[in-house]
Amino acid sequence: xxxxxxxxxxxxxxxxxxxxxxxxxxxxxxxxxxxxxxxxxxxxxxxxxxxxxxxxxxxxxxxxxxxxxxxxxxxxxxxxxxxxxxxxxxxxxxxxxxxxxxxxxxxxxxxxxxxxxxxxxxxxxxxxxxxxxxxxxxxxxxxxxxxxxxxxx
Length: 153
What we know:
Layout: H1 5-8, E1 10-11, H2 22-32, E2 36-40, E3 46-51, H3 52-60, E4 67-70, E5 73-76, H4 80-91, H5 95-98, E6 100-101, H6 112-122, E7 126-130, E8 136-141, H7 142-152
Antiparallel strand pairs: 1-8, 2-3, 3-6, 4-5, 7-8
């Protein structure tokens, strides 16, 4: 019988709240040696994910969009809205300001190969696992999948 997400997911993951100071989330990630946290509201409903990728803006900085000047007008060659979002992330002080919204999720009864395929296709490193009411009950990481593969061999 194929393994399901529930068979290998990490149960009761560490959760963050949107109002949590970013410094506290960074400390948790570093101390626990994990790369991301589900972010939940007061009802434990998923509202986003904070990950190392979200935090890279703070160190790497952001590049303004390319533009040209024409008759004293600025014409952006890329969407300036993306730059504004990146700037907001780089300057954010709380988890809610920096987190990625609308993360890819999965259900506990999904087969492990399906979940792994979804992670690969969507290029995500973790999937929050939600119950039928939308509450976070676990998290499936690439490491969980690799450990399941190792246990089979």
